[in-house]
């Protein structure tokens, strides 16, 4: 097909901020159809995109013959039904994380998409950060040596404001673990490999947010052991006062290995910290320009805020995978692997014991 017609289901902030600018980079791509249950949100997106088709009913959108690919950015509980229906109708699917409310549904999404022979992608956006890509490259070259420790920390200041559907367990599944730590679990898989077992704790410090009930977690911590023997510590919080709530808040990953240490902070998109065994300490390591943009992306790294614009490469990778008839760099299977860790963490927090993966 010369022109790819996209449908966006869920036209809130994440779609307008991340997905639309990414699609705009891609030649012969049109935002053809929109869906949102909120008529005002839908109309605002229609005016911004000029999409000729709009509906509050997702079934009408994802089954259309003139739609070739679907981006899903709805509350989490809707992801499986939308994605599976779209795949069965031959649509390629990019879905926000977490994929589902549980690992069984996430795996079903992956299996259905495979069976339908469509391209599928989980929106683990931070894999597109230049520093993260360079870090993965260095690890593959052996610069870390044998990995010993993986640790990550995501601290944001969301206070006690109302988070809408994200603070309702039946709609979101989980709170902080699905919203923010899911990315860092994916980091761990990407950089170190699969986990073997874990013990975790989750905490809800805000049962009310702006007077509305909240039954999801504000804070989560995981102590993990990986299959290759690496140890892991993962923590994430929405209640780290003073840390901001945007991409400028603390997002930190460190790996220690037999040959050295690497530190990654999202705020420093083109820089790592690196130290070698027995060395004097960590020093800046600049990311080479060839890692500033995802392969095949036409994005100019000098245009826009680099802490935002790297996210646009995600849509480019999705479109290129469709056109090249190859798997996406990050698939639904990656989303299902992350969901299995999330499920195990919730189970561990409930029983207070280690859980095998």
Task: Tell me the number of structural domains.
Answer: 2
Distance between the ends: 42 Å
Under CATH, the topology of the largest domain is which? Dihydrodipicolinate Reductase, domain 2
| Average pLDDT metric | 97
Beta percentage is 25-35%
The CATH class of the largest domain turns out to be Alpha Beta
Radius of gyration (Å): 20 Å
Tell me what the CATH architecture of the largest domain is.
2-Layer Sandwich
Order of helices and strands: EHEHEHEHEHEHEHHEEEEEEEEEHHHE
CATH superfamily of the largest domain: Dihydrodipicolinate Reductase, domain 2
User: Largest sheet, if any?
Assistant: 9 strands, mixed
Low-confidence stretches: none
* Number of DSSP-assigned strands: 17
Helix amount? 25-40%
Give an overview of the whole structure:
The chain is α/β, with parallel strands linked by helices and 357 residues long. It folds into two domains: 4-125 and 311-329, Rossmann fold (3-Layer(aba) Sandwich); 128-299 and 339-356, Dihydrodipicolinate Reductase, domain 2 (2-Layer Sandwich). The chain is 33% helix and 25% strand. The protein has helices spanning 13-24, 39-49, 58-62, 79-88, 103-116, 130-140, 169-172, 176-191, 306-309, 313-324, 332-351; strands at 4-9, 29-35, 53-55, 69-72, 92-95, 120-122, 147-155, 195-203, 208-209, 212-213, 219-226, 231-237, 250-257, 260-265, 271-276, 283-286, 355-356. It has a nine-stranded mixed β-sheet. Strands 3-2-1-4-5-6 form a six-stranded parallel β-sheet, with helices on both faces. Strands 9-10 form a two-stranded antiparallel sheet. Strand 14 (260-265) and strand 15 form a beta hairpin. The termini are far apart.
């Amino acid at each position: 097909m010369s022109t790819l017609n996209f449908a966006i289901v869920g036209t809130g902030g994440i779609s307008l901020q991340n997905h639309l600018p990414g699609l705009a980079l891609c030649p012969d791509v049109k935002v053809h159809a929109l869906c949102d249950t909120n008529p005002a949100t839908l109309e605002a997106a229609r005016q911004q995109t000029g999409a000729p088709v709009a509906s509050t009913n997702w079934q009408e959108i994802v089954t259309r013959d003139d739609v070739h690919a679907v981006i899903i950015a709805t509350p989490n509980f809707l992801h499986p039904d939308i994605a599976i229906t779209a795949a069965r109708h031959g649509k390629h699917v990019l879905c926000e994380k977490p994929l589902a409310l549980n690992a069984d549904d996430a795996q079903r999404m992956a299996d259905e998409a495979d069976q339908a022979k469509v391209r599928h992608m989980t929106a683990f956006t931070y894999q597109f950060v230049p520093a993260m890509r360079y870090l993965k490259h260095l690890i593959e070259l052996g610069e870390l040596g044998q990995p010993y420790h993986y640790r990550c920390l995501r601290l944001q200041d969301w206070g006690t404001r109302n988070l809408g559907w994200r603070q309702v367990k039946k709609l979101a599944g989980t709170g902080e673990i699905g919203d923010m730590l899911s990315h860092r679990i994916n980091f761990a898989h990407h950089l170190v490999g699969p986990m073997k077992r874990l013990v975790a704790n989750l905490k809800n410090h805000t049962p009310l947010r702006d007077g509305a009930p909240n039954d999801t977690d504000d804070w989560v911590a995981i102590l993990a052991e990986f299959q290759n023997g690496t140890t892991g510590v993962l923590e994430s919080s929405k209640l780290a006062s003073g840390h901001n709530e945007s991409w400028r808040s603390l997002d930190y990953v460190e790996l220690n290995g037999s040959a050295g240490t690497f530190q990654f902070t999202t705020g420093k998109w083109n820089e790592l910290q690196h130290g070698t065994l027995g060395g004097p300490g960590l020093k800046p390591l600049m990311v080479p320009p060839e890692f500033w943009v995802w392969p095949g992306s036409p994005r100019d790294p000098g245009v826009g805020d680099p802490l935002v614009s790297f996210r646009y490469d995600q849509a480019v990778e999705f479109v290129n995978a469709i056109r090249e008839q190859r798997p996406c760099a990050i698939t639904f299977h990656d989303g299902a692997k992350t969901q299995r860790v999330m499920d195990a963490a919730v189970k561990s927090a409930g029983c207070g014991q280690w859980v095998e993966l």
